[in-house]
Design goal:
single chain, 106 residues, mainly beta, three-stranded parallel β-sheet, 0% helix
């Protein structure tokens, strides 16, 4: 992915993405990420150390959150997972030190 480091707009990740390793990195200005409908698994490490991400919108089709998917997202404040989520892998939210709300819909 080219140019994401300086992007200040929200981004959407399509359901066709099955692998992503630290796609934003620690110097990104992206504050909002949407995982599109149809994505069943949020890939491991996809937003690892994306320090600027404050909000994520997770699709109602998501079943699995990959290992370290949001690891080190120190600005992440609120996560709401759909009731379809059955698996949260190791360290998925480790280091999210500013998180104030973590819910699963019923």
């Amino acid at each position: 992915v080219t140019g994401v480091q300086t992007c200040a707009l929200p981004i959407s990740i399509p359901s066709s993405v099955t692998y992503g390793n630290q796609i934003l990195g620690s110097k990104s200005n992206v504050t909002s990420v949407t995982f599109k409908k149809g994505m069943k698994t949020i890939p491991s490490n996809i937003l690892k150390n994306a320090n600027s991400v404050e909000t994520v919108s997770i699709s109602s089709t998501t079943v699995t959150v990959g290992a370290r998917a949001f690891y080190g997202c120190s600005s992440l404040k609120k996560v709401s997972l759909p009731s379809t989520t059955t698996t949260i892998n190791t360290y998925a939210f480790y280091g999210c030190k500013n998180m104030t709300s973590f819910t699963m819909s019923s």
